[in-house]
Amino acid sequence: MAWYENFFDxxxxxxxxxxxxxxxxxxxxxAIERYLGLKADSRVLDLCCGQGRHSLELARRGYKNVVGxxxxxxxxxxxxxxxxxxxxxxxxxxxxxxxxxYDNEFDGIYNFYTAFGYFEKDEDNQMVLDVVGKxxxxxxxxxxxxxxxxxxxxxxxxxxxxEYDDGTIMLHEMIHEVxxxxxxxxxxxxxxxxxxxxxxxxxxxxxxxxLTRCFEKAGMKVVGAFGTLKGDPLTNKDTRVLVVGExx
Length: 248
Hints:
Elements: H1 10-16, H2 22-36, E1 43-47, H3 53-60, E2 65-70, H4 73-86, E3 91-94, E4 106-111, H5 122-135, E5 136-147, H6 149-153, E6 159-163, E7 169-177, E8 182-190, E9 196-204, H7 208-217, E10 220-226, E11 240-247
Parallel strand pairs: 1-2, 1-4, 2-3, 4-5
Antiparallel strand pairs: 5-11, 6-7, 7-8, 8-9, 10-11
């Protein structure tokens, strides 16, 4: 079984996303609106929506045509329940991101919080961008939020740990396979009752020129790459990059 089929489970929902505050989601949606140039009637796809942080916030702001797509049934159920509680009209779809079949439907698509580069084969990662390019309307935009390895290397940590309020500890090991341009993450949760849960994920890392070629192959041109949510120029100190593509 591929890692992405079971990583986004109840443990992820309970622990991994704890640092992701509502205030952070609001700042990120501010950026999504700006970079995608959204209007009140824009049709928007939250690709790999997870627990719906951004799609829910867009709906709160009055957007009526928001689709949230994810593979994880656990995270989608959490999204749907939150939308139901708040009376928000969002269409949630369970699908592998390589398999979406939309054609010229969306004014904007975004992929946030490192949800690209999941697949072992480059062809599969390219397939994600290909379906994004197909799903966008002409002139529509795609926003990719992605790690900037150049900015991370100066303070790279191979191991870190977090302790949660209920006494659970998460141990996180990050192995950067330089030649393969791959980051292997091993995660171990240990509860105060000594229940242990091992999981992890792998990320294929792309550099700027590679992403530009991948976007172009998918029928999109890169119109900007930024180092902050506010739109500051990308530097070698930035740990994330926001790449904006436009359908040609």
